[in-house]
Design a protein that fits this description.
It is built from 19 helices and seven strands. It has helices at 6-24, 46-58, 74-79, 81-93, 96-105, 118-124, 136-142, 169-179, 197-203, 220-233, 242-250, 256-270, 284-302, 305-309, 311-320, 326-337, 352-361, 378-388, 391-396; strands spanning 36-39, 68-73, 152-157, 187-193, 211-214, 366-367, 373-374. A hairpin with a 5-residue loop joins strand 6 and strand 7 (373-374). It is α/β, with parallel strands linked by helices. The strands form two sheets. The protein has a five-stranded parallel sheet with strand order 2-3-4-1-5, sandwiched between helices. A two-stranded antiparallel ribbon has the order 6-7. It binds adenosine-5'-triphosphate and magnesium ion. The site of magnesium ion (MG) has 3 residues, from helix 2. Magnesium ion (MG) binds at residues 46-47, 157.
C-alpha cells in the first residue's frame, strides 16, 4: 500500500533515465555530482519510497536501457563494499532478456530487501570473492561504461549509519568515485537517511552537486486515500463509515508511521471473532485507544537515554523553536536554556552541537530544504513538550514567562462519539 510521493518518485525516475541518456553522450562530466539524498525523520517513509522506486523502475517490459535499482543499506555497504560493487557489475552486465527473466523469477518484481534479497542474492551467484573487482576503477576496467546494458540506481538506505564505516578508505572512495563519476559509469547514487544525512554525505566528501529532498507528512487527501485503499485491498466495504475512516486518517497528521499504527489498530478490531471484517462490528473507542498506545510506545522508543536526561531542556527548545532560524537558532536556544540543574543539563559528554544533531537524528527536529529547522511530527513535539515541561521549573526561570503553548488534547481521542455505543459506534 503506497500513497503520495509522486513528485519525489518522478524526480528520481527522471534522474535515473537521465543518467542513461547522459552516459550515451560519452561525456562523463555530465554524469558527475548528481547524487540524490532523501532525508526524513524515523518513520517518514524513506525505505518505503526506495521500495516504491524499485517497483516503479522495474515495472513495464524491461526495455533496453531501463534503469535498474540495487538496494543496500549503509551497514551492508560499508562491511561488504566489494560485494556491492560485484552486484553492481553483475546487474549492469545482464542483457535485457536476462534482466526480464530475472524480474520474472522474483515474484515481487522488486529488488528491495534489507538483506541480500531475491535480486541481491541472485546477483552474488555470478561471481566468487576472488573474481570480484575491488573498487570502482577495477569495475570500470572490467566493464567500461559502453558495455553497460542499463543504468543502475544504487540506493543506500539508513545512510546516517555510514559514519561507522567511514574509517574504511574504500567506503569513502567508492562513494566519492560514484558521485564524481570518475570512471564515467552510469550509476545514480540515491542515499536515504535521517535529517542529518546531507551533513553526513558532506563529511564523506560528497560536497557539491547534491540534490536533497526532505520527506515528511503526507497530504490529508493522500492519508484519506491510503485508508480507503486499505479497505479496498482487504475487501472491506467503507459505506456508512466514511466519516469515521476519514477521522482515523486525519488523526495521524499524515505521518506515515502513524498511518501504519492506525491501520494496525483497525485491523486488530476487524479480525476479532464475530466481527468478520465488517466495519459495523468495530469498536472505534478500542481502535483509537490502541492507536494511541502504539503511538505512545513509538514516541517512548524514539526518546534516547540522552533525551530523557535532558527532557526539560528539550521541552524548552521545542517550545521556543523558530523554524526560520535554522540550526543556529536551535543551538542558541540550547545555550539559552541549558543550566546545571537536573533535566536542564546537556547529556553527559555532549556539547551543544552534538545535542542539536542528536535531536535531528532522533526525529525530534528536521532540517528542511530552505535551511530551516522544524519539528516534523507535530504530536511528537507535543509529547516532548508535555513530558519535559514541569510548570514550576519553567516559571523558576525568569526569562521564560510565556504560558505553555501545548495542545494537551493532541494525543487524546476524547471525542465523546468515541465512547462505545451499540453497533460499535
Ligand atoms: N508513501 C507511503 N504510503 C503508505 N505507507 C507508507 C508510506 N511511506 C511509509 N509508509 C508506512 O510508514 C511506515 C514507516 O515507513 P518506513 O519504514 O519507510 O520509514 P523510514 O523513513 O524508512 O523509517 P526509519 O528511519 O525508521 O527507517 C511503514 O509501515 C510504511 O509502510
Ligand atoms: Mg527505513
Amino acid at each position: 500500500m503506497f500513497a503520495g510521493r509522486q513528485a519525489e518518485l518522478e524526480a528520481l525516475s527522471h534522474a535515473a533515465v537521465d543518467t542513461w541518456q547522459r552516459s550515451l553522450t560519452k561525456d562523463s562530466s555530465h554524469l558527475s555530482k548528481r547524487t540524490r539524498i532523501i532525508h526524513g525523520a524515523p518513520g517518514a517513509g524513506k525505505s518505503t519510497l526506495l521500495r516504491e522506486l524499485a517497483r516503479h523502475l522495474h515495472s513495464g517490459s524491461a526495455e533496453p536501457g531501463q534503469p535498474r535499482l540495487l538496494y543496500t543499506n549503509s551497514a551492508e555497504f560499508s562491511q561488504n563494499t566489494d560485494k556491492i560493487i560485484a552486484r553492481l557489475e553483475n546487474l549492469a552486465r545482464l542483457d535485457a532478456d536476462s534482466w526480464k527473466g530475472r524480474l520474472k523469477s522474483i515474484a515481487s518484481r522488486v529488488s528491495y530487501s534489507a538483506n541480500p534479497g531475491p535480486l541481491g542474492a541472485s546477483l552474488d551467484a555470478d561471481s566468487s570473492a576472488l573474481e570480484r573487482p575491488r573498487n570502482i576503477g577495477e569495475l570500470a576496467d572490467r566493464l567500461p561504461a559502453d558495455r553497460w546494458q542499463a543504468p543502475v540506481v544504487l540506493a543506500i538506505d539508513e545512510f546516517q549509519n555510514i559514519t561507522d564505516g567511514m574509517h574504511m578508505p574504500e567506503v569513502k572512495l567508492t562513494l566519492q568515485s560514484l558521485h564524481e563519476a570518475v570512471h564515467g559509469l552510469p550509476v545514480l547514487l540515491v542515499l536515504a537517511g535521517l535529517g542529518n544525512a546531507p551533513a553526513i554525505a558532506g563529511g564523506a566528501g560528497l560536497t557539491r552537486g547534491l540534490t536533497t529532498t526532505g520527506i515528511g507528512c503526507l497530504e490529508a487527501e493522500e492519508a484519506r486515500g491510503l485508508v480507503r485503499g486499505w479497505c479496498r485491498h482487504f475487501g472491506v466495504d467503507p459505506a456508512g463509515h466514511g466519516e469515521r475512516l476519514d477521522r482515523l486518517a486525519a488523526d495521524t497528521e499524515g505521518w506515515p508511521r502513524h498511518l501504519h499504527f492506525a491501520l494496525q489498530a483497525l485491523a486488530g478490531e476487524m479480525v476479532r471473532p464475530g466481527v468478520d471484517g465488517q466495519l459495523s462490528g468495530v469498536r472505534w473507542s478500542v481502535v483509537m485507544e490502541r492507536n494511541l498506545e502504539l503511538r505512545r510506545n513509538y514516541y517512548n522508543r524514539q526518546q534516547s537515554p540522552e533525551m530523557r536526561m535532558s527532557s526539560y531542556l528539550i521541552a524548552a527548545v521545542m517550545r521556543d523553536l523558530d523554524p526560520d532560524e535554522g540550526l543556529i537558532g536551535v543551538e542558541r536556544l540550547i545555550r539559552k536554556h541549558n543550566c546545571n540543574e537536573p533535566g536542564w543539563r546537556l547529556p553527559t559528554g555532549m556539547d551543544v552541537d552534538e545535542f542539536a544533531s542528536h535531536l535531528i537524528h532522533q526525529g525530534a527536529l528536521q532540517e528542511n530544504d530552505k535551511g530551516g529547522v522544524v519539528c516534523p511530527i507535530p504530536s511528537f513535539r507535543s509529547f516532548l513538550v508535555e513530558r519535559g515541561e514541569p510548570v514550576p521549573e519553567i516559571e523558576r526561570k525568569p526569562s521564560e514567562p510565556e504560558p505553555r503553548p501545548v495542545d494537551k488534547d493532541i494525543l487524546n481521542y476524547d471525542d465523546p462519539s468515541d465512547l462505545p455505543s451499540p453497533g460499535g459506534w
